[in-house]
Amino acid sequence: MIGQGPVGSVQRFKRNGTKTEQQRNGKILLSLGLPMTHRIVMPIRAENRWLYPIDWQQLSGSIRFERAGRRCEQCRRPHLRRVAHLGDGRWWDAEATCWRSSQGKRITIKGGFALASIRVTYVVLACAHLDHDPGNSSRTNLKALCQRCHMIHDAAEHRWQRWWNVFRVRALRDLYEDPRVTRERIADR
Ligand SMILES: [Zn+2]
Questions:
Q1: The pTM is what?
Q2: Band of pLDDT at residue 64, cut at 50, 70 and 90
Q3: Structural domain harbouring 94
Q4: Which of 6, 55, 68, 165 has the highest CB neighbour number within 10 Å of its CB?
């Protein structure tokens, strides 16, 4: 029966050498599954999900692919490409055959560099909110950024988010803890 049976049954052959239905089904699933491994889903925090407009996927796509032309709007690294870089933001633009700065400008590297310092990164563009507010999805507030630029842009926000997470745990504990326990805990300090 299609779609049933353990995954292991995919490996089984009928005695006469023809493929079982599970096996054929397994093949179909595999062929559908392969492109999925290349789809990197950028997680949206569950608590922020409702803030995103319902057409976020289309909006994000139109920023990244149409407006940005599949390149980071900060450093110009191309989407879903392996890019050689020096770890400090300078990267090799294979298409334009030149080095670029972390700001996307063409540069020459004076004095050369050690081959060992070259790294390769798979670039993924995501659509960032410039003011960190997922509720503000006007096009001027959105920017297609590679993960490096995204992280740099979000660095201050990440620190704040960590603080906020700790704060919320504290606030929840304060809200729901038995006041007598709270009193004892404070007294124990
Ligand atoms: Zn970038």
A1: 0.62
A2: very high
A3: 46-146
A4: 68
